[in-house]
Each structure stands twice: as structure tokens, then as C-alpha cells.
Amino acid sequence: MIYIVKAAAWCQITPSPANCGDIAGRERGNANDMDVEAGTYALGPRSGRLLVLTGRAGLGAKAGHDLTIEVTRWRGEAVVTPGDPAASRVSLEAETASMRVREGTGGVKPLTDSDRVEIEKNMREKVLMPDRHPTITFRSTRVEGDPEAFRVEGDLTIAGVTRPVAVDGAFAGGRARGRATVVQSEWGIRPYSAFFGALRLRDEVEVIFDVRLVPG
Asked: For residue 125, is pLDDT > 50?
């Protein structure tokens, strides 16, 4: 079964969705807007956004923040064949040193600029270690779907560990939107913690994307 992410739902999961009313209206008004033409499409920051959403866990969870982190340097390619989804393929490479904290919600106090700097420093030095692992890569192994919704299964490599992951999404208004759940410990990553473990990131993080399909 394919999990369909409609445009209206996308407006609820993005931190600062733009033109959500227009997107939802197009979705209701013209089903053909959800079709995608066969071709090769370039992916990257110029055509869309790649975000990581984190949550909190532990006894001190109320003191922390749910974070929206943006990957600012990434590139990829999608070969789309609507008539034969199995022939489609996707590849993506993201620079681990390019992750920036865009938003923090919840917590006892608002997230400050110094908090952002400290979080990004901890991500680099204690979690992602870009000097040793400069990129995160994804390569599709299976694609299925229809002109509206899709599922892409593939190999995700983080910190030198490769594991399978599934990406579910949909086409709407010339864009592709979707999400995947990544369990950090499955890639050998210990979720960051503070205060002797009383405050820590949840093991599961959500990776979401919203890209305009630009021919490569």
C-alpha cells in the first residue's frame, strides 16, 4: 500500500509552508497538476528543501526543543518513468557539514542564536563527524507508484553504515513531496543526550522534502 502525502497535509508538517492555500487549491481544482512527465530531474537547494525534524525524549524532555534542521548543500537526480515506475531511479548526496538549525519549538525557553550555534557544533563533533564522513548518500533500489503517489526504497549511507530505508511521497503542482523515518541507532548513531541522559533526542527522526521538478 502506498502512503500518499497530499498537499494540504504537507502544509501541516512543514515548519513555514509557503502558499499553502494556493497549493491546496490547485490540488482540489485540477487533478492533472499531480501528474509528472517522464524525464531526468535535477535535485538540490535551488529547486527545493531537504529538512530533518527531531523530537525529544527523557525525563528532561520539557526543557528541550523539537528541531527543524535544513540541509543546505545537497544534490541529486531523479529519473522518472511514469509508464514504468520500476525503471525510475533516484540518487542523492548531502554534505553533513551543511546542516543548519532553522527552528526550535517547545521547551521552557525559546531557542536562541547561541543555542543554534551550540547544537550545530554538537551535531558536527559528536554525531555526524564530517571530517570522517563528509556526505550522506541515498541510492534507490526499487520504485513503485502511480502518477499521484510513489514509494522509493533504497540504501541510505550515514557515517559509513548502509541500511535500507523507504521514502513515501506524492506529486502535486509540478513538485514532489514526501518523507522518510530514520532510526539513528540502526546506523550506529547514538542520539545526542545532555544532563547525564535526562534530555536526549528521540531515536527516530523524520526526513522531509519538497522539490520542484526541474529537468536536468
From this structure: yes
